[in-house]
Amino acid sequence: MSGRRGVGVIVVPSLFVLLLALAALPSAAKPPVAQQTVAVRLIQLDWLRREEPAIECSRVFEVQVMLRGSDRQLLEANGGGWVNVVLDIIDPETNLPYWAVRNLFLSYPDVPYMVKSRPTAQFGLPWPFPVGGNCVTSMGAAVVVTPEPVLEPSWPPPLVPTVVEREGHLVGGIIGIDEDGNEFGGGSENADVPFMLGPWELPPPAAGPPPGVRPQSTWSPTPWRGILDVSELNYGCAPAAATRSIKTVMKNERKKTEPAVNMYNHLIDDMKTKITPGPGEVGGTKAENMNAGKNQYCYDHDLPINSEMQWGEDSFAAASEVLGRGGDVELWIGWTGTDGRPNGGHAAMVTGMKQVAPHIWQITYVDDPVQGDGVAASKEHVIVVSDLNGYFTRGKVWGFMLEEVEHF
Known about the structure:
17-stranded mixed beta sheet; 22 strands; disordered N terminus
């Protein structure tokens, strides 16, 4: 099962559900009110692996929000909105329907930008749902969007029968060094996500911003639908991220560049990416080679772009500022392997950053969801991260590559 399937949109009818307010909200605060309609796709992932059989019908699912012009609560001028998704699978910890997506914040500068976005949140179903082999075709779902974050929905929510689609997932390709100085590489095939992933949620104790404080958002000048689709080769995420980035920035600068396939292949060479690792080797790209290779490519092709890597807590605000100035950002992340150690990672083009609470950031990025299948594609993902240590669920943001145009 290679995994790509057709698109089907599910519209969840009006859910005028009274939601419990945050415990920290003052008594004068207004309770959240549900948005009238939200369109979503529910997707069950085949967790594809390069050297081992795929985990078909894994316990990893995605909710993709299909935005429309009527979803005006999500505009920045209206304060944005918080998406919550509840499923009709019982959570053994609460003995209640599973709260799968918890306070996904969405905000857009205008309607044209919003309707060109398709944010996707990834989550794992609760145990005892098996790691793989249990294929789901339909599931009850309640989707609400509120102007304030919530600690929990009121129960029982109205659950609407929803079609579940099935797609593949295989991304990544970085080479890093663990704490013992050992080299590791590869991508999502090495991650423990199918075994350990839980709900999509903001890291505790942050349930959202303080009452009355709006999250701060920056966006790529180009929305998801305007970003180049790239057919990524195995382990080829870093040159693909740079290809999307360069193409997007130079298009906005009205400067012609070579065809995308040529650019991608040249960047593979310049970044010294191991697309086909030899015996005993790991596949992917080293961080220093990604930065040096991109700058070398831009120099060789007379492109007025300068890129630099930044790491640590301050890199989050720096990346957001670059996006706000019309520059571009690539994300550098690592996953946790099944042995609890770093194993596999990913580089991708960032399209949005939102500081939703002190030290808590939502990051939206774009990649080809299935490497090596010969299909050019882009999917928009959202993760939520603490800038104090870079951690998100089952992974860590190590840093960013920041790109800006030099105007002489």
